[in-house]
């Protein structure tokens, strides 16, 4: 009887991905980032074919992410214009805070960001594992460059 009760209790627990809580901490390099425009189904690179980026998860529950577009303007360091600064900002995604990992999804609780409108928000990513890669998928949301409702898929590869 105890076995039946235990089996029933276990069957009611939420499904957990193959990635255990203690396997998540570390540094991951961005392998790819695509977006699917919800209205048309069109898939395109969201930061270029070869984006640059890292995401770090600490054992202390803190996280930090920095992503830059593949092609970025490279202005002079000594006489940057306001347009140069805007172009730098437009090709950057950076934020940090704490995280809560649920096995099949992760929540980023943002307390610092390049874009101040994100501070105080929680961003949720669905998580799948493929070997040493994590595949994150966002919920449909307006894309920063054009406002079109899109689903973003980011592939992160754990660094050794």
Q: Can you give a write-up of this model?
A:
The protein has 160 residues and is mainly β. Helices cover 12% and strands 46% of the residues. Strand 5 and strand 6 form a beta hairpin. The longest helix is centred in the N-terminal third of the chain and has 10 residues, at 2-11.
SSE order in H/E notation?
Answer: HEEEEHEEEEEE
Rg to the nearest angstrom? 19 Å
Major beta sheet, specifics?
8 strands, antiparallel, barrel
> What's the tally of helices?
2
Terminal residue distance: 46 Å
**Strand order, sheet with most strands:** 1-3-4-5-6-7-8-10
Strand content: over 45%
Helix content: 10-25%
Shape, per Cα inertia axes:
globular
As an assembly, this protein is single chain
Average pLDDT: 84
Low-confidence stretches: 1-18
Extended strand count: 10
Report the structural category. Answer: mainly beta
Note the topology:
Elements: H1 2-11, E1 26-37, E2 43-45, E3 52-57, E4 62-68, H2 82-90, E5 92-101, E6 105-113, E7 122-130, E8 133-138, E9 141-142, E10 149-158
Antiparallel strand pairs: 1-2, 1-3, 1-10, 3-4, 4-5, 5-6, 6-7, 7-8, 8-10, 9-10
Task: Summarize the model shown.
The protein has 160 residues and is mainly beta. The chain has 2 helices and 10 strands; from the N terminus they run H-E-E-E-E-H-E-E-E-E-E-E.
Features:
160 residues, mainly beta, 8-stranded antiparallel barrel, 46% strand, globular
């Amino acid at each position: 009887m105890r076995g039946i009760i235990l089996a029933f209790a276990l069957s009611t627990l939420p499904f957990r991905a193959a990635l255990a809580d203690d396997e998540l901490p570390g540094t991951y390099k961005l392998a790819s980032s695509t977006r699917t425009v919800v209205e048309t189904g069109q898939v395109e690179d969201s930061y270029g074919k070869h984006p640059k980026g890292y995401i770090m998860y600490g054992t202390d529950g803190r996280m930090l992410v920095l992503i830059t577009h593949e092609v970025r303007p490279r202005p002079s360091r000594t006489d940057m214009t306001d347009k140069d600064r805007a172009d730098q900002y437009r090709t950057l995604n950076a934020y940090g805070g704490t995280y809560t990992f649920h096995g099949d999804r992760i929540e980023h609780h943002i307390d610092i960001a390049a874009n101040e409108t994100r501070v105080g928000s929680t961003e949720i990513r669905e998580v799948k594992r493929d070997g040493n890669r994590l595949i994150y998928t966002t919920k449909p949301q307006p894309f920063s460059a054009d406002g079109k409702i899109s689903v973003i898929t980011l592939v992160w590869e754990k660094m050794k």
